[in-house]
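quick one
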Amino acid sequence: MERITTPALAQKFINEQVAEMQAQIGNKKVLLALSGGVDSSVVAALLIKAVGKQLVCVHVNHGLLRKGEPEQVIKVFRDEMQANLVYVDATDRFLDKLAGVAEPEQKRKIIGGEFIRVFEEEARKLDGIEFLAQGTIYPDIIESDGAVKAHHNVGGLPEDLKFELVEPIKLLYKDEVRVVGKELGLPDGMVFRQPFPGPGLGVRCTGAITRDRLAAVRESDAILREEFAKNGLEGKVWQYFTIVPDIKSTGVKDGKRSWDWPVIIRAVNTRDAMTATVENVPFELMQHITARIVAEVPGVNRVLYDFTPKPTGTIEWE
Ligand code: XMP
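structure w/ xanthosine-5'-monophosphate:
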């Protein structure tokens, strides 16, 4: 297959997929778990073009999304593309289940399992759905040797909820998905988004998640992203984010002793995420970001930079 590298090739792909999906789906209904990531967003935009309101998108907010993400999904898909969008704020459900759980794999299991349950409940409320759309892409198929990766699908749904799959981008690589997304008119912030793990900010709030420390992760991440965007590092650095570990140290603020968390900044470059190098962020910019984080994020008194390549450090901290 010819690699999709130009708007013209993307348009050709879009036309072909729209026709194919219309033939497959007819006048039936399709369900899609829409995370707001590039893959599911492109699938949603393709399906809206093909079958309009026969598509039902479900956006589950597990409370571990980055600042502004659920709002962007609602704005782009419900307000601008007039999609049939069900928004589920399941924050309390997830955070209650995660309370006191410190072990990383256990946290991932809870987040993944609860996600399926919330999605299942929404699916059961809807009548006459026969198809399930998924943002599976080609590397998902190769990497998982046939079985689709856990975060990319809602595999694990109970037997009585079996749908026929619609997977329009399953032969595309990520760079091709982005060209198609751009041609579909999705915003750059969505199309060129850095990778974001399924368990979200949950693995960046290390150990047992608390709402106040999670808020510190979300706010510091928003400041980092804003400053990287302003200073030309967005789209240049492969992945960047903050971590707030479950430790405290002494500090001083407004003449008073404080006992607060550190924020750790991670900014790495890689081709395939198997190995990674650390971005050489200008020192002045780091000082500016540090000043903003300690001034604007409650409960934080220090900012650290993680200088560790992978190996020996993984990209995430959990
Ligand atoms: P590590 O930390 O293993 O991360 O060096 C490599 C890449 O994978 C992402 N990552 C995940 N993505 N679910 C995901 O969907 C996960 O549980 C998960 N853990 C790590 C990480 O963000 C990086 O891009």
